[in-house]
Design brief:
The protein has 1 helix and 6 strands, in the order ββββαββ. The protein has a two-stranded parallel sheet. By secondary structure, the protein is mainly beta. The longest helix has 11 residues, at 82-92.
Length: 113
Amino acid sequence: MGVVSIGVVRMGVLSIGAVAMGVINASVVGMGILIAGVNVMGVWWVGIKGMGPFRLGSQSGQIHQHHGQQGGKQNVYAYPSKQVALQKAKELGCEGVHAMGSLWMPCREHPQH
């Protein structure tokens, strides 16, 4: 633990390790504000699997997955392309698309619970 921390399991302002937690870190598994790794969670992140509001290196941030299999409804996704969202709307049996940040979602209106 420290300002700069390098090792197997690390925690610091800047952390590099197999498992790391810090403001800025690079790790296989990690959590922080700005993070790069395989399985990560952070505000700005890059990795194979991750969670957080901003995926770095992605044209549209991150893929928005919305609404699970509740009440017999299908998952509804957001896409970087308006054309892909229009095609998905046809498949779902609705018309039009709507914007969700920099992404496009099928159907004219956002599904409500």
